[in-house]
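cron nightly-structures :: item 1 of 1
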Amino acid sequence: KSINNAQVFNKAVKLSRTSQKAKGITILDFDDTLATSESLVKFTRPDGTTGTLTPEQYASNYQDMQDLGITFDFSEFNKVVKGKIAPLFQKALKLQGKFGPENMFVLTARPPQSQKAIFDFLKANGLNIPLKNITGLGNSTAEAKALWIADKAAKGYNDFYFADDALQNVQAVDNMLEQFDVKRKVQQAKVKF
């Protein structure tokens, strides 16, 4: 895996340093960025006690909790429970026209099985991202999102817009994109009450 990551990174660096036509991409997180839902993250402490977190609580605390040996269960995230549009949804509708829906992606820590539920929710609310452009990483680390984005740079994208509610994801992606000679805008989505 490390060798593959290094190869992707090297290809992205090489492509970013060659002059090429602008190729834009929009990448948006799902939970608390495009939508809010009542799906909860279940967790188990090393002593066997369990609990639940909202997506916002999870985004703020998962790194510290992982360091304590706490494990997470995302089974509720295979569906969108009582979904509502979130902070960047209206902006996403406008961005859909900038690079086109074929260059708009949803990148979420939810499991891959959530792809169809996310697609149905977005389509019902007017956002027409192709099903294949919805990626459930099944991995909540900031590194996973940054590496996925490095792969897009390796595929020739050189104008990035990225938004996520988790500050650590925004920082990791910004740090990754800083390594390449690409245009970038990264933004933290915040739920407004």
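cron nightly-structures :: done
The helical segments are 2-16, 55-67, 89-99, 115-124, 142-154, 167-178.
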